[in-house]
Design a protein that fits this description.
The structure is a single chain. It is globular and about 45 Å long. Helices cover 86% and strands 0% of the residues. It has one domain. It has 182 residues and is an all-alpha fold.
Amino acid sequence: MAKKELDVVEKQLFGLAVGQGVLAILFGILALFWPGLTVALLIVFFGVFVLVWSIVGIIVSLTSIGQNKFWWLELLFSVLALGLAVYVLRNPEHTASIFVFFIGITFLVRGVVDLLEGLFGAGDSSRAYSIIVGIVGVLAGIITFTYPVSAGLAVVWVVGLYGVLYGALSIAFALRAQKELN
């Protein structure tokens, strides 16, 4: 690709990362500060969040072929997350019974993918981001699996906190990467 085309792609990826971060923060705030949030509505919000998250992941993984040796892992997770999002959005009533499991497994797998990218594949500018987000994801997954019985409000809070932290870190590191590119 020519330098001009790369600049356009980098700006688009920056916009996607910031948009994903904003969506994650909004989702997190809704989960944290809307105490009357019903499980059905949370399932729909979760489905939309994972849908956007997976589409961004697919785009990022495909544009990082040759730059990131774990691009295929990101692509695999993103395709699986896309399938999860479609299932959740098409079957919210069936999803409610296994919602806690979906949340826990999503956090855990995403955390492991981010940790592996941070430890072995990420560039210097995104290594810390990947490791921090990976640790947050793994911890959120462990907490979700450890306390499934008290999942009601606790899971909503874990989801909310994860959304806010993930979103803030996504925006912060996107801004940092954008600054380094200029």
